[in-house]
What does this fold into?
Amino acid sequence: MADAIGAYIAQPRFAHATWGIDVIDLSDGRTLYRRNADKLFIPASNAKLYTAALALHTLGPRYRFHTSLYASRAPSANGTLRGNLILYGRGDPSLGMGSDTQTPTDWADKLATVLAARGVKRITGDLIADDTYYAGPPFGAGWEASDLLSGFAAPVSALSVQGNTFTLRVGGNGACCTASVDPLAADVRILNTLHRSAPGEYDPLGLYRAPGSNRLYVFGARPPSSKPRVFNLATPDPARLAGGLLADALARHGIRFTGRIRTQHWPHPGEDEHGKGLVRITDVRSAPLGTLIRHMLKHSDNLYAQLLLMASGKHQSEIGTCLGQRHPPTLTAYWGICAMRAMLRDAGIAAGSAFFEEGSGLSRKDRVTPEATTRLLRWLDRQRFANDLKQALPVAGVDGTLRYRMRGTPAAGNLHAKTGTLRYAYTLSGYVRSANGQPLAFSIMLNDYARPRNTDGRPTAGRATRDIDAIARLITEYGNVPLPSPSASGSAVPAGKDSKSP
It folds into this structure.
């Protein structure tokens, strides 16, 4: 394995890149191969491994999120609610995500159904969409401004719904330059200056929305016969979207609502906590945390990851300690980082070998070592929730972000691992059984790698994920053959000799 890996990563095209690899025997912690295993790397979405571990460690696999509906007073005998309706979120990342058995608006219909069953026919107050359960911030530290328009970098809110995204459709029905939003409750104002392109004209379609603004600029030129294009974009205000979807559900269930949809993002001084002095109508509960983590890891969902970091941070803030810091943080996400540090300490991961600014891996400020990651994986393997975590990871050639990778190889159906991809940063870490049945934990990290290109700009090598997979296959094929002694290409520890153990 050592010679094969060493030969592969010694290719000239990796001359300016850095590889970090650590492979251990899961049963006893023996190091089987390492290269730059103690160096810090950008983990990309391998950060989600740490966030999943944190949430399971802090909250447990059976934890559920609750989204509550309150009224400021009880409805009258004639079915009129002369007061406000409050939709209060507590960080459920799955609200409105839909499934095989649920539509994206089932949650709102459930709340409206309960109101109607209580005889409510009319609401004269406002509908307040309240996400004050978390104290922010709406974006992870280090998320790039150029990403914030896209659905994969949607803002974080305690009242998140439908992944905090909306669909923009450009063109269709014979028109090249129309633009429409779905759902309308996203409250996005389109400023469309698209025009038909002349023959030979090249003016690509462009989109722009300033962070926090609901104005979406659609500009450029399109050929008259162009096919429609569909974009998944971040909604500017998730709480407002949730409020709008609930208002739509009220109308579907025959409840007349004459007030305004308002949002509350920060507690006002002197206001009572929710539940005190309010009439509870009903709750919507999420699936157990173990199920949510399965979605997060299989699909590498950034919103889920950041919300689970904040949920862990909320729990940590209620404990009230941040590893002895003199001035504890005020924002929920930073409490989450405190909780992460506490978990790393519990896992025996050395200080200085893992740094996080957020929970998804979108930030290039995050840094971890391959050695810290294999140590985490071995620690997780000994926890009561070990099976929940392993079953949540993508499986090579089977599902999630590894569905189409390593098919037809010994890794298919065998390797369970978290992928990670940012520009110039590629990672894969997880579990696999070797050719001789040994349970292994591994972490492969490749940073600062750009595919070589020829003079006309076309790449002369495959995608970096193929290189990561090639190393993973070599690890999978490891058997009982004695490994060579340490060399410049990496170091191997022959079976039977002592090595570091977590």
